Amino acid sequence: IEKVGRSLVREADRERALGGVEHSSSELRPNPRTERAISEILSVSRTDLILSKLDDTEGRNRSEHASHLNQHSQLIRELYERGSVVRDGVLITPKENSSFAQPPTVTTVEYALKRLEPLVSGSNAKDLAQQIVDYGAKIAGDSADRDTQIKVFNWIYGALDGRHDFLKADEKISRKETKEERFDRSLREIATLAEEMGKLEPSDRHILLDDVHERSEANDIDRNEEELSLEAVYEQALGRDEFQPIDAKGSTSDFQGFERVELENTMNLSRLAADMSKEERDRWVSVRLPVLDEMLESGTSVDALLKPFQNHIYQTAKNDPSNKQAALDDLRFATVYIGHQLKQPESRLRHSNPRYRKYASMLDNASSRSELMDAASRIRHENARLGLQWGTMTRADKEETTQALTTKEMQFLFTEISPRHYTSEMTALRLSYANSGNAARTRTEAMIRGEIAPGKEAFRLIESLESRLERRSLTDSLSATKHFLQSLRTSNDELRYKNGFDHSEAYRRLPPDERDYVYQRAVIQKEKLEAKSIGAATETQVPARAAIFPTEGAAAKVAGSLRDALKGDLTELLSNNPSIDGRELTARTIRMIDNRLEKLATKMASEEHVISWSKELGSGMSQLLQAGIEHRNGAR
Fold first, then answer.
1. Which domain, by its residues, includes 601?
2. Count of domains observed in the chain
3. DSSP class per residue in 339-365
4. Cα–Cα dist 260/276, whole Å
């Protein structure tokens, strides 16, 4: 406040006061939010400034003001003569009917009646026809063109006919509903949507300019005829002829409805800046605005920020009355600027939320990619921990602690304008921490498909994971992959077998989508290795199975097919039920053998082979099952 106050003293003391402020502001890094606001203020053209003051006549009558506007832009004069006005930063212009074409047939009541008669009874069709037309008009909107109206009404009639659902079908809706039930459901959906769309439609307020016209005519009568030139008299008469009040329905005029164009949010600031001298404007840009933003984002109240300007008005009125208007203009500009900045989410959150301000400062002060990663990961973990603990905190602790940031606030935090010292890698890294929920899952799936490359740290972890596939045996690779998963949640110092670098620390610093990617890759690798391990254990027992079956003639072929079928059944059983115990495994295997033997018995010419093989299978398979169970217990 003292800095701003010193910069606002009267002209004789300004040089001394500005020295301290300039020294203070030069030590600060350029504020990207200040730079953005300055760019918006200075980028407004002169034509836009005149357009923002379209109906500000400054005492001129209608024809004189039209001539004044014509000196700058014929377009602006045309807008003025059509009855355009500016209200709250919005240019409102009566809409001109450029075409008198008939409305599309599909939007008429007659067409609606024709489409509804096959679906409902005659009396009900007449009642519903007008409702359908009204619903379609609300859904399409007042400013819809012909193509939009045709698409909306065709979609409505298609839903009523049963060709498609009007809205996305709910899974709970029964597909066995009758035509009448489907028609009623579609009609309810149409009515509900029309009601909601009607609420979103802007209500056109007809701007009554009768009083303005009457005052203009009264002023013209009071003026002496000598003051009006021939050109002015002609323009004044032309203005009276063109000016016609707009009726409610637009039936007696060539105008119907209004077009709204939102002007720049910084238009008021640009107008005030345009009235300043170059020296004064440069002083605001280089000194005052950076200091105002610095104090605003540090949590200083608006009243405290404006108090030096108010004191300066008092001192100027007392000591230098000739500069009082300049002091008032400074206060007005500062007030509008602060209001504009508080409309921006980043500045508003920095001003009102201490936790957001702290986290934003941590990110802004990071000078390298590593520092930014440390700060971002620490912010996410700290905020998540506070959010989980908030429900169990006492009332006194809650009063002393700022609440955790919401998901939307966290997105604003990581998607702010990057400071000037950020590199492109730092900007991309900061944006990656903004992903959460569905956005993070989408990016993770894209990384698994290979569409997006992970960051350096994630890639380093993936290299460590893939190197574990190069072990001497399948069992060693599986054990090494399980060790990798344990390393993600255990510090390197606490591991029995150390890694080349601390996997848990690197994993903790990753953005959410990359953490999920590394973990899913590890789980997928582990599951594939376990499946191969089970298959390898089954393959090692094949010679023992082959010894069970006869190997001569047709009996050998049948035995081979039985062996292959049982092998496939056992592999599928163990893959689908990895946690099956020995007793259930034995029972399920015996049932599979009986089913296969029953099928073989129908194909054999003699049952003697089946009886012989069943006895041999009973003893051989019991040994095989026991070996498989022991192998599984050893793997566990």
1. 545-635
2. 6
3. HHHHTSHHHHHHHH-HHHHHHHHHHHT
4. 30
Are 26 and 166 contained in the same domain? Answer: no
Going by C-alpha positions, the residue among 417, 414, 404 that lies closest to residue 434 is 414
d(CA 502, CA 376): 19
Whether 527 and 450 map to the same domain: the answer is yes
Q: Please give the mean pLDDT across all residues of the chain.
A: 75
Distances (CA, A) of 251 to 145, 254, 255: 19, 8, 8
351 — pLDDT class (breaks 50, 70, 90): very high
What is d(CA 604, CA 370) in angstroms, rounded to the nearest whole number? 74
Chain-centroid distance of CA 94 in Å reads 35
Strands 85-87 and 90-96: antiparallel
- Among 434, 456, 477, identify where a domain stops: 434
What DSSP designation does 175 have? Answer: T
Verify that 233 and 86 share a domain, yes or no: yes
Other Cβ atoms closer than 10 A to 192: 13
Amino acid at site 315? Q
pLDDT of residue 359: 92
Structure tokens, 525: 């690798």
The pLDDT confidence band at residue 556, using thresholds 50, 70 and 90, is low
Q: What value does the mean pLDDT take over residues 290-308?
A: 91
DSSP β-bridge partners for residue 92: 85, 260
Q: How far apart are CA 516 and CA 441, in angstroms?
A: 8
Quickly state the pLDDT bin for 362 (edges 50, 70, 90).
Answer: very high
**CA–CA distance, 137 with 163 (Å, rounded to integer):** 21
Enumerate the H helices of 162-301 as residue ranges: 179-200, 210-222, 230-242, 267-274, 278-283, 289-297
Q: Which amino acid, residue 39?
A: S
What DSSP state is assigned to residue 252?
Answer: T
User: So what's the pLDDT on residue 206?
Assistant: 42
Residue 409 in any domain: the answer is yes
